[in-house]
Amino acid sequence: MRKRVKDATPGMKTEAVNEEQNIAANVDEIMRKYDRESNTRIWEGIPKIVVGIILALFSLFCIYVTLFANFLEQVRLSSFLGLVIVMGYLTYPAKKGKMQPNYMPWYDILLMVVGSAAFFYYTFNAETLLNTGLKMKLQDPFYIIAGIIGLVVLAELCRRSVGLPILCVAGAFLAYTIFWYVKDGKMMGKIVHELFYNENGIFSTPVNVCSKYIVVFIIFGAFLEKTGISTYFIELANGLTGKYAGGPAKVAVVSSALCGMVSGSSVGNTVTTGSITIPMMKKTGYDKNFSGAVEAAASTGGQIMPPIMGAAAFLMADYLGVPYSDIIGRAILPACLYFMGVFLSVHLEAKRLGLKGLSKEQLPVLKELVKESYLLLPLFILIYLVCSQTMTMQSSAAWSILATIVVGVISNYLRMRKVLKMAREGDLQATEEAEKVTGQQFRLIHIFEALENGGRSCISVAVACGIAGLIIGCLTVTGLASTVINTIVMISQGKLFLGLLLTMICCIILGMGIPTTATYCIMASTCAPILIQMGVPMICAHFFVFYYGIVADITPPVALAAYAGAAISGGSPMKTGVNATRLAIAGFIIPFIFALSPDMLLVNTTWYEVLLITVTSIIGMYGVCYGLSGFGAGEESGSGRISGICKRIISIAGGLLLIYPGIGTDVFGVALIGAVMLWRRFGNKEKA
């Protein structure tokens, strides 16, 4: 993609190149530190090819099974997790740190073999076990031992690929389950039966949906990455917003929203896009803590951005029994308000600091970006096929994968054509552009790499879903979910707002350090029923718990996305987390709004009500962001400072009233924000 290059002295160029090289060198280290998925073994030569083939074959197996196979559910799910165990131990070492290339210790090989054997035992004996009575199965030591080994090996792989937080949650629930069984004098073997072999345990809804839908969309995302869509998103955001006040921060917000749809990881998105946008923000004049916070808040928001929503949209559709298109349709307005809140906060901060945008020479040529908009075609095809319901979600993803291959071929042709045209016109940049195009060409090896990367990305998601299923199994067999629900309902004394507040705290605590899909599974089983029992519509309850599970990634003290942003910016992790929480304030406000008023999620609304809600919510979000930023609110001390605080409080109150749907609240909110604007305007004139 061709850009205008700003003139600079050799010293400036060298300094810029050195900084970019340092950042690039640190990206892998940061990912390994804060993102378990990036802490992988080092394979070289023939072993690397063999492992790559195994991962690619797994991707093809998943596509085949979801599209064509007609296996028993027990066969499909157990074979799926068995293969995940094999790939997981080939990919993830026991601990972080420097690793010896092409080395896998004997105990990892043992865990891989016995763990996968436990799952494949179920695969090849599924039909026999289904026809055998429970009492006879519990008397078979091999049946119990295989289940225990499978659970233990899956838990260890979870520790390696996902992290300890979800294991701590699962361990607490498992300990309670064991205590509950022992207390009632029940056989311990029944725990293994319920959690490993029964559909209420690890083979429950999370793994079922993961193997059926999520893996295919993860593979689709891997193919999209190979077409260069992430780079295109960043360039597009740069071209659209880079020239405005504080441009690089706005680029971070827009590009992270777009890239987050594909990546499905708050930390991964923070590091990949942040390695480009955070240094740009710091050079523009933003504080290092604020720069890291912008990227963390925006990247976390990518998990709530339709149409992918960190793959949780598929789970939500399955849990609620509604079409996938219905989920993403209702998610659009809240997601847009979230990013509008971050965008407005960034804009007001830029105005407060007097920051400028990027110069014309630093911006990409929009005309060139429009020419490359064909890169978005696979995404549009996916959205159309899924929303039109002309075929299944799996088939839609498969056709979209084929579309990415076609787009890759078209991209090669158009880029080479561009280079030849530049050469004919005598353009001095033709050679440089030719080298760039050669490096970006979509070749046959990229199809293999996309299948390999897709298979690798599926590991942590599948493992997290398996452990989430374990938690769900513990809640089901012990009836603990009902106890938790009744306890919170009793504490809240029937007051919905208090119930929402308690549920929010539970979601943030349970969601800390846990991947998107597993977060939603846990919340849907433990927290959503609380709100449903208190009268909140089912879809609103599920969106509520999903949002608060996601913002746990930026909520101190366990704010992994904020920690990753701080590692790039050089700022304080805690200050970055606090700033990110303030920037993402919409993510904390909006769930309360749609829980109290389903209109925000377009439940039983007409088109003109939707239009009114959209307009008033946008104005309201500006009022909230204006009040939180305090830009132009008042002087530093004395009565001016008190006046400024009053304006900020009134602005926030007016904004919240406007975001909450209703004619009365809208009128009152407009009056408050209008009063603040008039106060600011005429107050400044009197001061002058």
List the main descriptive attributes of the protein structure presented here:
688 residues; mainly alpha; globular
Task: Describe the 3D structure.
With 688 residues, this protein is mainly α. The protein has a domain at 605-688. It contains 31 helices and no strands. The two termini are 49 Å apart.
Secondary-structure blueprint:
Blueprint: H1 10-34, H2 45-67, H3 73-91, H4 106-130, H5 134-138, H6 141-161, H7 164-183, H8 189-197, H9 205-226, H10 229-241, H11 247-263, H12 266-284, H13 288-301, H14 312-320, H15 324-353, H16 366-371, H17 377-388, H18 393-424, H19 430-440, H20 444-478, H21 480-492, H22 496-511, H23 516-526, H24 528-533, H25 538-550, H26 560-569, H27 573-583, H28 585-596, H29 607-629, H30 638-659, H31 663-687
Task: Compose a concise summary of this entry.
The chain is an all-alpha fold.
In oligomeric terms, what are we looking at?
Answer: single chain
What structural class is derived from the secondary structure elements? mainly alpha
Note the gap between the termini: 49 Å
Strand content: under 5%
Q: How many beta-strand segments? A: 0
Number of helices: 31
